[in-house]
Write a structure and sequence with these properties.
Shape: globular
Structural class: alpha/beta
Oligomer: single chain
Number of strands: 7
Number of helices: 13
Helix content: 40-55%
Strand order of the largest sheet: 3-4-5-6-7
Strand content: 15-25%
Distance between the termini: 12 Å
Length: 316
């Protein structure tokens, strides 16, 4: 376990990392932040601040798990490969309606799961054929071809009468084509330093929409939805519902969908949440959990890049 003195020495003592009543998750979050600061220091990358840029009346302070913003934008140092950086730049250059995408977080926050997602799947975006082993694992060897790899993607945010009518999106999405020409989609949510926490109960209108998608799917155990709403499993549920809404969409229905939650094996909060969420399902065929470690073991990434990813995000 790291000490407060270690964290303070590397500008990593952050109150936000404390999770009340959960010392195991608190320890993980502090260790993950320190790990990113040490990775940055080992490469002599300039330290960022909180806030990232000057704000009236707010004193900036150094933050070890962040890059200096102008340097980060100029160099793309938050990305482990040129393909990942190109994927991020391409996504920024192609905004989607009603999106919420924080550029500062993408380019300068070493701890964020958003750039981690690009580091993990950017090479697959550049060369979709590299996805074959990973998709085979997720699709249970169903014969499919990868049409596209997308980031921060939703089929349509806030569209009346379609999908979830909210801003939920997948961190990454794989558009697939089956042998008969029909479409399939795998939506992915990546987590790293985050922890699973209670969420606000949705508005009555939105909750009605969510319940409708959940009821049509027929995969939830009796009483499960009531237990999920307003609780720590709600975000996982909404991501899963987005995948299910793709399957139900009459305009362009998918033949097959799956939602995959990816997190580090050492993140106790999401390890517990994944088990709790699976226990809400009568049919779990559209939901899968994969640790970062097991995902890397599938060998979707080139060896050198997989090694760089492990060094950046994981530790013994």
């Amino acid at each position: 376990m790291v000490t407060r003195e270690q964290l303070e020495a590397h500008h990593c003592w952050e109150k936000v990392d404390h999770v009340s009543g959960d010392p195991e998750t608190t320890a993980f979050r502090r260790r993950a932040r320190l790990h990113q600061a040490l990775w940055r220091e080992a490469r002599s990358l300039p330290e960022g601040t909180e806030p990232s840029h000057p704000r009236a009346g707010v004193v900036q302070r150094p933050l070890g798990s962040r890059l200096e913003l102008d340097f980060a934008r100029r160099t793309g140092a938050n990305f482990l490969s040129e393909q990942s950086r190109r994927a991020a730049d391409d996504r920024i250059e192609k905004p989607q309606p009603s999106q919420t995408l924080m550029k500062e977080r993408l380019y300068a926050d070493l701890l964020s799961s958003m750039p981690m997602c690009f580091n993990l799947f950017g090479p697959l975006w550049a060369q979709p054929d590299l996805s074959a082993a990973l998709i085979a694992a997720w699709a249970r060897d169903m014969p499919v071809e990868v049409d596209a790899v997308r980031f921060e993607w939703s089929p349509g945010r806030l569209l009346p009468g379609r999908f979830l009518e909210n801003r939920t999106s997948f961190d990454a999405a794989f558009d697939l084509r089956l042998a008969d020409g029909t479409l399939a989609t795998i939506g992915v949510e990546t987590k790293y330093h985050e922890h699973c926490k209670r969420e606000d109960v949705p508005s009555a209108h939105r909750l009605e929409r969510y319940r409708a998608v959940a009821n049509r799917s027929g995969i939830f155990l009796p009483g499960a939805v009531d237990a999920i709403v307003g609780g720590p499993l709600q975000q996982i549920w909404l991501d899963h519902l987005l995948a299910l809404s793709l399957f139900q969409d009459p305009a362009e229905p998918r033949h097959w969908v799956k939602f995959v939650l990816v997190h580090p094996a050492k993140n106790p909060s999401f390890a517990r949440a994944a088990n709790d969420y699976r226990a809400c399902l009568e049919d779990s065929s559209t939901f899968e959990v994969m640790t970062l470690e097991s995902l890397l073991a599938v060998a979707a990434l080139p060896h050198a890049l997989a090694s760089a990813f492990r060094e950046r995000y994981l530790w013994e």
